[in-house]
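Weekly structure sync, notes
Attendees: PL (lead), two postdocs, one rotation student
Agenda item 3: pending single-chain targets
PL asked that the sequence for the first pending target be pasted directly into the notes so everyone works from the same version. It is reproduced below exactly as submitted, 177 residues in total.
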Amino acid sequence: MLVAYASAWALNGEEAIRQALDDCWTDASTYVSPLTDVVRGLAGLTNLILDFPVMFPGASMGATGRPDIHHDAACVPWRMRSTAPIRTLGRDFGLCLDGVDFVEFDGTGRIHRITAFFGFTAPATASAREGHPHRERAAADPARRVLALDGDADHLVSARSPVHHVAHPGLGRRPLS
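Predicted structure, written out during the meeting:
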């Protein structure tokens, strides 16, 4: 599904884009980013992709890493490169803009929702995470705690959260308490 979605952004012409999206998108699917209101359905996303070259002349999009996928969700880092300066949201990003798409899949495996964020940077190294704000918030609020699932990510979990277990490759399903 993610391959079909990504390929649609590289295509020209309404019919070609629509064909690629037919495999991964539904009339109930939504896309939202800092630049858009909620874009709904196949026609809405097709029109957004058709408008992309007008909004960002000379720009192209591509994944910068492998998607992180579990259950019915994915996180996909990406980069937009352009031959002209990328200026949006009151900022000048130069010739490239990094971002991430948070993807939710429906019961059939097709994309239900994408929420895009702009201006993300590479993940912090272990030494840079020592003063990580999630750690500081967790220390300030006893109802919160940090659960380190692996060496690359810290996940904030609230004790008031309905989540009682965590599943992680290599760790299996473990109680949070």
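Discussion points:
- The chain has four helices and 13 strands.
- The two ends are 35 Å apart (CA to CA).
Action: rotation student to compare against the earlier draft before next sync.
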